[in-house]
Amino acid sequence: MTDIERTEANEAQIAVHWKEEQYFEPAQEFIDQALMRDPTMRERFGEKNFPDCFREYADILTWFKPYETVLDASNPPFWKWFTGGKLNASYNCVDRHLDEHRNKGALIFVSEPEDEVPYVMTYQELYHRVNEMAALLQGECGLKAGDRVTLHLPMTLDLPITMLACARLGVIHSQVFGGFSGSACADRIKDSGSHHLITIDAYWRSGKLIDHKANADIAVKVAEELGQKVDKVLIWQRYPGKYSSPTPRVDGRDVFINDLLKQYRGRRVAPVPMDAEAPLFLMYSSGTTGKPKGCQHRTGGYLAYVAATSKYVQDIHPTDTYWCMADIGWITGHSYIVYGPLAIAATSVIYEGTPTYPDMNRPWRIAEQLGVNIFHTSPTAIRALRRLGPDAPIHGPQHFKHMTTVGEPIEPKAWRWYYEQVGKSKAVICDTWWQTENGGFLCSTLPALDKMKPGSAGPALPGIYPVIFDDEGHEIPKGSGRAGNMCIRNPWPGIIQTIWGDDQRFVDTYYRRFCKNPNSRDWRDWPYVSGDGAMDAPDGYFRILGRIDDVINVSGHRLGTKEIDSACLTVPEVSEAAVVPVHDEIKGTVPEVYVSVPSGTKDPDAVARRVVKACEDIIGKIARPEKVYVVPDMPKTRSGKIMRRVLASISNRRDVGDVTSLANPEIVETIRIEVQGK
Ligand code: PRX
């Protein structure tokens, strides 16, 4: 079976069959005010002007020392962008806006409890907070450029303040999604070699004040077991001056940031001029093996790319109020809540809680109250918000000019609801395709220049040259509408530098498969392999079909099948485990798990419960299997490989196809009956 057949056998099946070809024009009102109206932009960013075209992106930033070379591609695939240049991300996102925007909102924090009034943090205040926190990191922890620090923070202002304080010093931050378990945090502490963990006592989620400090204790303990000693745990307080966690403080290790900050009031720390190629942050992402990959993003290229795409794709003007409902713990939040918007002096909203809490209309109330006019979310959130009344109009008072969707394919039905009900047929929609490794958007319509087509991410962005290969490495002709492996032919400034501490894995994962000549020093021989299946329609619009590797996309978040399998295998009775993606009306895909146990195992329900708990404890609630099937054996090939495809077909109520060549074909029907009934 080829990879593409595998693609079509999972979530992509839906996408392939959309066959949607209706176009929607951007509203004239939007076009008239758009920041990018130059119809020649793609041409200007065409191959004959590559890589110099990206000067335009770099020039959006303020450089302490100008760069000498746009792209140094002499050592593929370790590209270097804007070499010779020096800059500081914190300076670019804060200091340089003070003259013009000192008292304008930089960030607006919205608590989940609705009785807490939103807090507008001006650029001036952000400047003070970031400086003081940087002074604290220097003074209390001795942190300096190149050190790594792990953050395990939820969606409060403390998170961007901490990130920008690190960036000010050149300290590499590694923020772990707040919903991940202490144990998952420990893996990332160990891999990054952090000696400090920055966390918070508690935060609100779905009406509950969650004890987050408990995770820090687990993280430190597990990290130590892995051989990484954490010297200090720095704790923000959700309510400054009050400790909101029932978990005791560990003497000599745990310190309250708010107490310490008193000694640093009014302190200033000069932003450290960093090489354009200095790493800015690590963002761990799931891959096809058990170990998450530390995606290492550079300072200059990354910041230039996210600033420019925030400006030209998101169309954020300093006068707009922009709300991206993602979590800063994922790349979307790093690029399009913090770094991109702040680099261009936006006002960016941070919402602490669940979008549907306490009811489905919460987002529209927030939007109205704050005057949000640019909105950014995932298809999962769109489907969840639509659930209440798919055909009933929402009577929200919001007035969006622009809306983004990201993270998963959006089916035309959900797209239309977003367009008609949420955007009131006035807002443009950008369906943005990209990945943690990419830094910023790779495919999307340019909102004032391109028509929208529901279900298609749109053409490649300026300066991005995609190519689709079949499994044998032949280019699939442009516009043929045939599915294949989505690749990008050229380097671009937002791409990661490497995988932290593992250059070989970087090359093997993204560049090995379709490399034309491993000895070549010409970038044209080194296409980037995204791991997604896609097809390119005759109009040049790309329809992304989903992952073709062992990665599951749950609610727009990546989970490696091997990570989940390994978590299941920690349950002593489990002999073998296989997780499969199952189509879900709201979340797009959810994981279902098959585990085999030795015959005679008592109480399979208890085993199933332990499997669920293991996934939650080792990875986090996001990896919670929707169902666990305890089976006597797995369908296997003659070489002993578990046939996930067969299990996925059973879970998705699809025909399992021909299974006669399996080593144990009879087990398929046994499992089918267990799952689907007779
Ligand atoms: O399969 C693609 C899907 O999400 C994957 C990347 O996940 P992650 O690194 O967590 O980053 C998510 C946010 C950038 C991709 O390999 N994906 C992302 N955006 C889209 C998408 N699939 C279809 N359409 C999109 N717009």
So what's the overall shape? globular
Distance between the termini: 28 Å
Per DSSP, what share of the residues sits in E-state strands of 2 or more residues?
A: 15-25%
* Poorly predicted segments: 1-15
The hetero molecules present are: adenosine-5'-monophosphate-propyl ester
Portion in helices: 25-40%
| Biggest beta sheet attributes | 8 strands, mixed
Widest sheet: strand ordering: 12-11-8-6-7-14-15-23
Keywords, separated by commas or semicolons:
single chain, 678 residues, binds adenosine-5'-monophosphate-propyl ester
Could you describe the 3D structure shown?
This protein is of the alpha/beta class and 678 residues long. Helices cover 29% and strands 21% of the residues. The chain is built from 22 helices and 30 strands. The strands form eight sheets. The protein has an eight-stranded mixed beta sheet with strand order 12-11-8-6-7-14-15-23, with helices on both faces. Strands 5-4-17-16-18-19-20 form a seven-stranded mixed beta sheet, with helices on both faces. It has a four-stranded antiparallel beta sheet with strand order 21-22-24-25. β9 (202-205) and β10 form a beta hairpin. α10 (182-192) crosses α11 (213-225) and α21 (644-651) runs parallel beside α22 (666-676). It is globular and about 75 Å long. 54% of the residues are buried. Residues 285, 331-332, 406-409, 431-436, 457, 530-532, 544, 546-547, 553, 556-558 line the site of adenosine-5'-monophosphate-propyl ester.
